[in-house]
Every structure is written in structure tokens, then in C-alpha cells.
Write a structure and sequence with these properties.
3 domains; 8 strands; 17 helices; Fumarase C, Chain B, domain 1; mainly alpha
């Protein structure tokens, strides 16, 4: 038989599992929000624990908490921050109340674990109280957005590293494929000659921009509102605590955080999250575009993507470009999340944003998704091989390669050659041009070096 314990609040009494570290406020949220089955992101839970620890340290140093209570709270925060008690945060990610349910959840888990450190039983809040001790001088409205910024910074750093690996994978292929000539394509039509290495250099450059942007946008999240309590005025918190708590937060997180000059504004507005989400969307756009390019190049045989799994339950031997398809779907999801983040930030009213739980879930989900897919795609790119023969086949047969000869023969003569080539029985444009202009000239004009050079040397 499952044992129960009863807790009380101003709404009445409620039963909950006797062994649960959460309390009545969390239990009400469990009952009220059986919506998505999605849990609060683990990095946000860790960041909340670190934020609570910073608040506790500030309250200890300013003399507002007894040392014994403070020591127990810190020990509980440390356990949660390293992933222990992870099953004690059951509240649905899609919750009403601006994050209050999550804040109360962590207050209660910290309190009940700290009570155990003090030798008591869960629910004995006469020893240590979730609100009066753990949440002392705090509000959901300063703790939750602060913790979200901390969590996002941690994951942005992970993302920057993941993008760096992806960029490196494409740069490796840029060097490996430098000597392979091929056709460029515009508007799904054959265009001017390039090299396969140059094509991969463009992919690497896009991810280089993404890496720089993801690294720099951390700055947008370093200004926090901790100490502002309910609406940013610091009401009910002592001044010495307000000035000290940011220092403690810097210490426990290892991040260069600062208190906002206008804490009211930091509490009321969530635009910084929208700005960061825009950076994530830009990366998602590059992932979609480049993954689709890789799929098409694989279709043409210009590259060979690593074969990962059988592609059909009915067609034997069919292998699909599943990893690039997964990357495209991930990018679409991140773009959709950006719309959610934009909408939730816009719908905050007056002094707080009551829709931060959905914003938080969407932002951290996007970061998690991008980090995961970047790691997978990086390994995938390392396994790409060149279809050199196909590249040469398309190159040699295309009339468009004559564009490289315009500085030598001019537009009119080039048009004349193309007309002659197209009206005859020729199927090798390069050989045709060699007959017209000589092999030595054509070899030089179509060398990988010449095709990759920035313009041509004008000796006039």
C-alpha cells in the first residue's frame, strides 16, 4: 500500500506520496497541468538550483539565515545541480503562472532534502520552510528568468562548440576536395565551373558565421534581474542582499553576470530571448539549406553520403539520406520554436511575462536540438566521399564551362562555340574546346587553381 502524507496551504489540504520530495504546491501543479507530458528542461532545473544556492549564500552572509539551515539548503542545491533527485520535478513544462509552479517545485524539493540533512522527516516545515527559508527574499519573477538566462548561456556555449566541430568537418572536406573540378549550379540549372572544395568552403563559412553569432549572443543574456523580487523594485528584500546576490550568482555559476540597471525593465520584458532565438533560427536556416544541398549532390552522385540504414520496407537495397533529412526537420522545428518564443515574449503584460514557461521550454529545446544534430551531422560529414568521376562527367559535358574562357575568346565567340557544340553530335564540351583552342590552354583554364582564383590576372 502506497503511503501518503498530507500537507496544507491556504486552499486547504492535499495528499501526496509520503516519499516525494515535492510538497503541496507542486502536487497542485501536477493535478492542474496534465497537458503535454513534457518535463521542465534539466538544464533549467540545474540553473534554478544554482540560483537558489546564490540566494542562500547571500542570505547567510547578510545574516538573514541561520548557518545550520543555510548549510543544509546549499547541500540540497548541490545535489540537484549535479542531476540528483531529477525524478522529483514532475510538473508539466506547459504550466500557467509565469513559472511559479517550477519555482515552488524546486523550493519544496530543496526544503525537504535539507530537512533530511537536519535529521527531520519530509514535510516537517517547522525545521526548514520552502518559502520562508529556501525562497527567502526571492520571487518567481526574478529567480525564474535569471535561471533561464543562466541555462541558456550554458547551452549556447555547448552549441558554439558543436558548430565549431561542424565547421571543422566541412573545412576538412574543403581541403580534401580542393582539386576536384565540377559544375556550379544556380536556379537548379548548370552554371559556371567551380571546385568541389570551393563548394564545401561555402558551407564551412556559413557555419563559421553561426559559430561567431552563437558565441557573441551570450552577451544578451548576462544582464539579470535577480534581487528585483516581484516586479523589479526589490520589494521585501534588504538592500545589502540585493547588491550581494549577483556576486554570489557569479561565483556559483562561473558566468560574467550583472544586475540590470533598470530591473523593472529586465523583469517586464523578454526581448533578449527573442534576439537569441533569432540567432538559433539563422543557424537552423543554414542547416536546412546545406543539408538539402548535400542531398541533391548525393542524388547526382557528386558526393556519396555515408549509408546509415535501409531506406525502404519494400525496395531492397534502397538507402536514403536520412541524416540530412533529420537535420532539415530539426531546422524546421527550431524555426517553429522561434515563432513561439516571439509570440510568448510579445504577450507578456505590464510588469512580468506570464508565458515564460513555454518560452523557456521552446528556447532550451531549440538549443538541445541544435547541439544534438550538429554533433550527428559533423560525424556524418567526416564520412562523405567525392564522386570524382561524376563531377568530371557533368563538367566535361556541359556547355556552361565555356564561361571560364570569356576573358580569352569573348562572349560572341563563346556563343558561336556553344551553338556549334549543341547542333552537332558532340557530347564532350571539354574535348570539343581542346580541338578548337588546344589542350594546353584548356588544361590551364580549367585547372582547380584557376577556377578557385579570385578573378583572372589582367596584364593590360
Amino acid at each position: 500500500m502506497n503511503e501518503k502524507r498530507i500537507e496544507h496551504d491556504f486552499l486547504g489540504s492535499l495528499e501526496m506520496p509520503a516519499d516525494a520530495y515535492w510538497g503541496i504546491h507542486t502536487q497542485r501543479a501536477i493535478n492542474n497541468f496534465p497537458i503535454s507530458g513534457l518535463k521542465v528542461n534539466a538544464v533549467l532545473i540545474k540553473s534554478l538550483a544554482l540560483t537558489k544556492k546564490a540566494c542562500c549564500l547571500a542570505n547567510l552572509e547578510t545574516g538573514h539565515l541561520p548557518a545550520e539551515k543555510g548549510k543544509a539548503i546549499i547541500a540540497a542545491c548541490d545535489e540537484i545541480a549535479v542531476g540528483e533527485l531529477s525524478d522529483q520535478f514532475p510538473v508539466d513544462a506547459l504550466q500557467g503562472g509565469a513559472g511559479t509552479s517550477t519555482n515552488m517545485n524546486i523550493n519544496e524539493v530543496i526544503a525537504n532534502r535539507a530537512i533530511e540533512f537536519l535529521g527531520g522527516q519530509k514535510g516537517n516545515y517547522s525545521l526548514l520552510h520552502p518559502l520562508e527559508d529556501v525562497n527567502l527574499h526571492q520571487s518567481t519573477n526574478d529567480v525564474y528568468p535569471t535561471a533561464l538566462k543562466v541555462a541558456a548561456i550554458y547551452r549556447l556555449r555547448d552549441l558554439s562548440n558543436a558548430i565549431s566541430s561542424l565547421q571543422g568537418a566541412f573545412q576538412e572536406k574543403e581541403k580534401e576536395f580542393a582539386a576536384i573540378v565540377k559544375l556550379g549550379r544556380t536556379e537548379l540549372q548548370e552554371a559556371v565551373p567551380i571546385t568541389l572544395g570551393a563548394e564545401f568552403s561555402a558551407f564551412a563559412e556559413a557555419f563559421s558565421r553561426d559559430r561567431w553569432r552563437s558565441f557573441k549572443c551570450e552577451e544578451r543574456l548576462r544582464v539579470v534581474n535577480l534581487g528585483g523580487t516581484a516586479v523589479g523594485t526589490g520589494l521585501t528584500a534588504p538592500r545589502n542582499y540585493i547588491f550581494l546576490v549577483i556576486e554570489k550568482l557569479r561565483e556559483v555559476t562561473g558566468l560574467g553576470l550583472s544586475r540590470g540597471e533598470n530591473i523593472l525593465g529586465e523583469t517586464a520584458n523578454a526581448d533578449s530571448f527573442v534576439e537569441v532565438s533569432g540567432i538559433l533560427k539563422a543557424h537552423a536556416v543554414n542547416l536546412i539549406k546545406i543539408s538539402n544541398d548535400l542531398r541533391l549532390m548525393n542524388l547526382l552522385g557528386e558526393i556519396r553520403l555515408p549509408q546509415l540504414q535501409a531506406g525502404s520496407s519494400i525496395m531492397p537495397g534502397k538507402v536514403n539520406p536520412v541524416l540530412t533529412e533529420a537535420a532539415i526537420q530539426t531546422g524546421i522545428k527550431v524555426i517553429a520554436n522561434d515563432g513561439i518564443i516571439t509570440e510568448t515574449a510579445a504577450r507578456g503584460t505590464w510588469q512580468i511575462n506570464e508565458f515564460l514557461p513555454l518560452l523557456a521550454h521552446s528556447l532550451l529545446e531549440s538549443l538541445d536540438l541544435l547541439i544534438n544534430i550538429d554533433g550527428l551531422l559533423s560525424s556524418h560529414v567526416h564520412g562523405i566521399t567525392a564522386g570524382k568521376d561524376k563531377c568530371e562527367e557533368y563538367f566535361n559535358a556541359s556547355p556552361m564551362i565555356i564561361t571560364a574562357l570569356l576573358p580569352i575568346i569573348g562572349y560572341e565567340k563563346a556563343t558561336e562555340f556553344i551553338t556549334e557544340y549543341s547542333s552537332g553530335n558532340e557530347n564532350d564540351m571539354r574535348l570539343f574546346l581542346e580541338k578548337k583552342l588546344g589542350k594546353e590552354l584548356i588544361d590551364k583554364a580549367f585547372s582547380p587553381h584557376q577556377l578557385s582564383a579570385l578573378g583572372y590576372k589582367d596584364n593590360k
